[in-house]
Amino acid sequence: MSTDDLIETFKAQLRDDPDVASAVAAIRALLGFLKQDRGETIQGLRSSLLAAINTLSRVDSSVAVSSGGELFLRFISLTSLEYSDYSKCKEIMIERGEIFLRKVSLSRNKIAKLCHPFIRDGARILTHAYSRVVLRVLEAAVESKKRFSVYVTESQPDQAGQVLINLQKMAKALRKLNIPVTVILDAAVGYIMEKVDLVLVGAEGVVESGGIINKIGTNQIAVCAKAQNKPFYVVAESFKFVRLFPLNQQDVPDKFKYKADTLKTSQNLTQEHPWIDYTSPSLITLLFTDLGVLTPSAVSDELIKLYL
Amino acid sequence: MLYVMALSPQAKEKLQDAIDKYLREKILLAAEAISRSAFEKINDNDVILVYGCSSLVNRTLCDAHVKKGQAFRVIVVDSRPRLEGRETLRRLVRKGIHCTYVMINAISYVLPEVSKVLLGAHALLANGSVMSRVGTSQIALVSKAYNVPVLVCCETYKFCERVQTDSFVSNELDDPDDLIVLRKGQAQLGGWAENKSLRLLNLVYDVTPPDLVDLVITDLGMIPCTSVPVVLRVKNVDQ
């Protein structure tokens, strides 16, 4: 499968199912790539898969795509493949790939089941930007007959004109579920924090320290929540766990901070506005993942189990 | 570990091989691995603060200097009575690294310009506390107050199953006479032994609580302090 075909498959997945996480679409594309690979050796297969993951990361520079791809690769080559027959090995790898994909597709529902009991009747929730996992959690809460209201931040920066699109995405989706929604300015988070009972955000990536990488503005919300003693909950699937350990905002690699197109075309990255920021683990109360409800310090333990 | 059933020469040889392997992997190669991991955390125009003399930290800085040139500078903090920082200073300056030398009472003065603190450790306890040369916890505390990230470099063989929450429950006492200073021919504190109400305390180690340390760099990768018990568990399973 050529790189263009791979990118086309990936983009087609995103187009056909707008609800799918970009990492899941990437994993599906990688599985297709694996099935069509004509190599004869395991090493060759590994290196072509690594190259494929790189290609996809260059199309969509979000943290989840690269972490999801790496975890996929690790999962299918986890234990030693004892068969000397290459085609048998490849079959097993494809089988494992399908299992991984199935597990990953079920993760959102698992998280929703774990998280919705934390939303009490009459709660006022603050959320940031558009997160499909948070949406699923709130759906589950609605299904269990809870009444609550949601404050959504405007979550800039989007290019002028697209502001309304981002605004509408989360608020529209919530209104469809008949949840009373208020859209607030990013600058109004400090003002609204005293009215809120809990903060619920998604994550683009979960790092080794237990901190998260998410849409810019998340760090501010976390700091305000800490100052007012409001619980700050994060919902993220386990394929978003990534082997990064940023010490501060500057330490996050540029390839995650800016969109893939910006990285390719821009001359001076300091003139560009970063899309993500890093929230340190001391500000996070709990993380809801398909591996269970974790405290930030438990994330590293899970990562050690996943990667070592 | 190998259980030697009989002292036959083969058994002895096996034991020697096991010891050599451990030395090679857990001590020598680990130092190389840690130096490489720590290099990723050193950015251009960094000001790195180090304390005392740690072979790991020295090695990391020298290797980074070879790869990066003049991209960073180092502030060496030292303290009495051991003055181990002088050895660090000697080694780094010899390699051509830009260094500044201060005593530990000056850290509040230098910390605003420091971008990260790199410390060595004598042991990492099971609750995530770092046991290191006395003065380390002070540096970590003041760095936290100035929001400077604190990185500890430590091989996994130094991970220990003991738990300690303070530096007094178990420590080493050094010669109290080392604290006596000769100034203009006069020994300050010289007659301390005769004075019944005066005691000199020369501690060797202190314990830094895990919330003051941001990152631990080990041969298994970069982990937060709180993950030490997991590494210990994984190690026990391996053996």
Question: Characteristics of this structure?
Answer:
heterodimer, A: 308 residues, alpha/beta, B: 239 residues, Rossmann fold, seven-stranded mixed sheet, 21% strand
Strand share of the residues of chain A? Answer: 5-15%
For this structure, the CATH topology of chain B is: Rossmann fold
Largest sheet of chain A: 7 strands, mixed
Gross geometry of chain B: globular
Q: What is the CA–CA distance across the termini of chain B? A: 7 Å
Describe the protein's architecture and organization.
The complex is a heterodimer of chains A (308) and B (239). With 308 residues, chain A is of the alpha/beta class. Chain A is 50% helix and 13% strand. Chain A has helices at residues 3-16, 22-36, 42-59, 63-76, 86-115, 132-143, 163-176, 189-192, 218-227, 254-257, 260-265, 296-307; strands spanning 123-127, 148-153, 181-184, 198-201, 205-206, 212-215, 232-235, 276-279, 286-289, 292-294. Chain A has a seven-stranded mixed sheet, sandwiched between helices. In chain A, helix 6 links the parallel strand 1 (123-127) and strand 2 (148-153). Chain A starts with a helix and ends with a helix. Mean pLDDT of chain A is 85; it is low at 159-164. Chain B is an alpha/beta fold and 239 residues long. Chain B has a seven-stranded mixed sheet, with helices on both faces. The interface between A and B is medium-sized, with 16 and 17 residues.
What is the element layout, followed by pairings?
The complex is a heterodimer of chains A (308) and B (239).
Chain A: H1 3-16, H2 22-36, H3 42-59, H4 63-76, H5 86-115, E1 123-127, H6 132-143, E2 148-153, H7 163-176, E3 181-184, H8 189-192, E4 198-201, E5 205-206, E6 212-215, H9 218-227, E7 232-235, H10 254-257, H11 260-265, E8 276-279, E9 286-289, E10 292-294, H12 296-307
Parallel strand pairs in A: 1-2, 1-4, 2-3, 4-7, 7-9
Antiparallel strand pairs in A: 5-6, 6-8, 9-10
Helix pairs in contact in A: 1-2, 1-3, 2-3, 2-4, 2-5, 3-4, 5-6
Chain B: H1 9-40, E1 46-51, H2 55-68, E2 72-78, H3 85-95, E3 98-103, H4 107-110, E4 116-120, E5 123-124, E6 130-133, H5 136-145, E7 150-153, E8 181-183, E9 186-188, E10 205-208, E11 215-218, E12 221-223, H6 228-238
Parallel strand pairs in B: 1-2, 1-4, 2-3, 4-7, 7-11
Antiparallel strand pairs in B: 5-6, 6-10, 8-9, 11-12
Helix pairs in contact in B: 1-2, 2-3
